[in-house]
Amino acid sequence: MKQIINFFIKYKNTILFLSLFLLAIYFTIQNHFYHKSRILNSTNFITGKVYDLRSNINDYFYLKSQNERLIEENKNLREALLIFDYNKKDTIISGIDFKAKPFVFQTAKVIANRYARLDNYILINKGKNDSIHIDNGVITSKGIVGIVDQVSENYARIQSILNSRSAINVKLRSSHHFGTLTWNGKDPNIVQVIEIPKLAQVKKGDTIITEGRSLIFPEGLPVGVVEDFAIDGASSFYKIDVRLFNDMTNIGYLYVIKSENQEELKSLELEENE
Amino acid sequence: MSNDFIKHSLRFILLVAIQVLVLNNINFSGDINPYLYVLFILLLPFDLQGMQVILYSFLIGMTIDIFEDTGGINAAASVFIAYIRPLVLKFSFGVSYEFQTIKFYQTAISNRLTYILILIFIHHFVLFSLEYFNFTFFLDILKKTILSTIFTVFVILIVNSIFISRRK
Questions:
Q1: Residue A138 belongs to a domain
Q2: pLDDT tens across B8-57, in order?
Q3: Cβ–Cβ under 8 Å, residues A244 and A221
Q4: Does A80 touch chain B (CB under 8 A)?
Q5: Class of domain B2-167 (CATH, top level)
Q6: How many Cβ pairs within 8 Å bridge chains A and B?
Q7: Which value does ipTM take for this structure?
Q8: Are A175 and A200 in contact (CB under 8 A)?
Q9: Looking at CA atoms only, how far is residue B95 from chain A in angstroms?
Q10: What does each C-alpha distance from A264 to A102, A123, B40 come to in angstroms?
Q11: What residue numbers bound the domain in which A18 lies?
Q12: CA of B62: how far to CAs of A271, A274, B68, B77, B124, in Å?
């Protein structure tokens, strides 16, 4: 017994080191593979407040670029509205009930944006209290940003598309061949689309849009343009570099997309699987 | 003792604040940031018990991790260098460390630089290895480690020179 106690006293530093080191490794692995079941993340009260404070100051420096973006978006929306009004007069659309909105938008502000790591997350200032849920899609006026993966009362964390675990269904606008959007961790302006079959016609400058099958994003949201492509080794799929429409290093305000039917469809899918 | 405790607590808060509010947003040439918070571990009193060094290092690393959503990579790297700190101290300061009478700012600059360089390099290497979590990225890890080490040591030397000139 005395020997055991002596052993512990002699190696107390090593034991403490090993246990804390393994604990840290455990948190790391949990963060890598089971990212939806974590307790320790930046949506907690303290970190949220700290980032909130900082962003309240930083906002003033980005007023100009934010205004320009809003004007640009207003212009696009006005144009779309004109075309819509014009078409509505004499087409079948007039018969559709526009009160049934499958998607609802919620504005939010980025309070901490990261893009320099391999696994990037964005913190926003809206949470459960604003009925934001895990798996809500997030976009800006220019394109997609990511998917909500953690929520607390007042804050939510977004798994950015600049994350090695990100996998979002996208397709070519011209041909409807679909693939998966991933990121190799190198350039925050360039993401990769894999699994588009060799049969598809891909050109530089083709637009990539969301596919809409996942219920997270509506169909047809812009993602980016094809910058470069190659056939991926011996496989029969393309590996495409896509230049994002969004500047992921400067987001500011964004929209969280809440799908009204998501819960319903999810439960249906579950039933189907059972 | 309690005076020391307050001093180190303040340093803890200050370094964490600077790290998460300023330095993590530099992203020099895309993804290179200085990790100044490691200075807290380097500056812990040399005669502090090993267990306390490890515990405080875990605390500061975990705090950074929670702010940055990085799991436990900063905590792991921090406890790692806290554990090997006595060895590095002996290696860089030689016998004078054994007597445990020296203060950080009274040591020769060359010894101090060795001490800082070794610990920062190891810290960054563990940090980026865990961040990528895959040794097929070995060259990326090495590149990021070397560039970040240069940046961190540079920032630490600036902070150092400010403090020393104030003391004189």
A1: yes
A2: 899 999 999 999 888 888 888 777 889 999 999 998 888 888 899 999 99
A3: no
A4: no
A5: mainly alpha
A6: 99
A7: 0.90
A8: yes
A9: 22
A10: 11, 27, 51
A11: 2-31
A12: 41, 41, 10, 10, 15
